[in-house]
User: Which sequence fits this backbone?
């Protein structure tokens, strides 16, 4: 029997709730999240267990944050800059207890992806103009690469914007 399984994620910046649910479903089947490799996640075989997972995308982290989360029942599974995935027993209170603190972290990420999208967009336009003026296939190739980077920055930007709006609407409806 295999010791590991690999699954492709839905995009943590685009739909983190789907990935967190996938991690929980895999744990219930006895496959526990172990590490991340780009868009793929590695799961190790273990005993089936009902865990819940949470994502914190904050880049400004320190050991105090991990200690605080541990005191609340959350164990870090993946610790990377800008991506921290935690696991806890079912019924553990969520990491973000209020919409405003969650929106604050999401807003930082949204701004970062917005800046990336603008920079790549400007580079793409400049290269497109240069490629048209020179009829250079090399410049057109670089333009396509830059366009791809623009899209990969724009989609998370839009998804994070959608998440922030949804959190704020949820908060208003709770009031």
Assistant:
């Amino acid at each position: 029997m295999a010791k590991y399984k690999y699954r492709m994620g839905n995009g943590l910046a685009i739909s983190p709730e789907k990935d967190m649910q996938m991690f929980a479903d895999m744990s219930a089947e006895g496959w526990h999240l172990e590490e991340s490799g780009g868009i793929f996640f590695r799961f190790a075989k273990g005993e089936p267990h009902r865990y819940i997972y949470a994502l914190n995308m904050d880049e400004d982290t320190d050991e105090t944050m991990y200690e605080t989360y541990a005191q609340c029942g959350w164990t870090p599974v993946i610790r990377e800059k800008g991506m921290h995935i935690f696991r806890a027993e079912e019924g553990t209170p969520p990491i973000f207890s209020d919409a405003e603190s969650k929106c604050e972290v999401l807003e930082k990420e949204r701004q970062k992806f917005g800046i990336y999208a603008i920079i790549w967009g400007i580079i793409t336009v400049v290269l497109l103009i240069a490629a048209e003026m020179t009829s250079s296939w090399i410049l057109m190739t670089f333009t396509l690469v830059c366009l791809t980077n623009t899209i990969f920055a724009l989609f998370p930007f839009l998804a994070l914007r959608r998440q922030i709006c949804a959190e704020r609407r949820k908060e208003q409806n709770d009031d």
The chain has two domains: 4-89, 99-174. The CA atoms of residues 131 and 137 lie 7 Å apart.
